[in-house]
Design a protein that fits this description.
alpha/beta, Nucleotidyltransferase, domain 5, 51% helix
Length: 301
Amino acid sequence: MKSYLFIGIDISKATLDVSIFTSSAITDIHYQQFSNSTKGFLQLLKWLKQKCEGISIEDWRACMENTGMYSLELNCFLQEKGIWQSLENALQIKRSMGVVRGKTDKADCQVIARYAYRFFDKLKQYVLPSVTLLRLKALFSQRERLVSMHSQLLVGNQSMKGYPKELVKDIQKQNEGLLKSLALQIKVADKSIMECLQADDELQRKSKLIQSVPGIGQQTAAYLLIVSRGMESFATAREFACYSGCAPFEHTSGSSIRGKTKVHFLANRKMKMLLHQKTNECTKCGPFQTDLPDLFGSKKK
């Protein structure tokens, strides 16, 4: 029987806690901690090669929780070295653990490694998004920060209306200058997002399809493309509706439990908010299937 090396990685901002074992010796677990940096990645690779003699790199299975930017550099390194990797939902791994008392990084990485072993047939390989999508994500995040700062200053200026003008005149003037500057920067970010979408013909095509739904604009379309990795993470519209918290689920059992059919709280709340916000603004919105043909599950040709 083919032997695999299972690698559980618990990622934090500064360190990587790693546990490994082979499918032929699941009780023989090795543990080591490395820094979350290029130097640490190289040390990790050297340690793995020393501990798994006889197992080729094609049979390594690295599994980790999706920690966003903390794992991005490691994901790039693993993909560059041709190491198979999977990013799993943290809550899904936690619920697979059963009853747990106490918590340490060493124990967590062992749980992740065992999770990869138990659900080996269900793990999905993680492949980094395209360069265009990574830049689009960075631009969208920057725009959100600018909008947040603009909103805070706007609220701050409005809250000063109760003060005598001579006491806060200089503060209001300073805030007005900052508001104008931020508004200009937001426009620049919008233009950069548009140019980023135009740089990729396939993303531009999908963006236009998404925006063909009444009420959906460039920002919602950009965010949808980011979270869905260019609409390739979802095979059907139903999967996307579930992910975005728009799909209702039945809650019944036997003859005594007759709960309301409602959406589940586990969802991308920002995606849900954007979709509801935009569709509520437009009374002519129709179903996605009508306006978005050949979008979900489509691949680049």
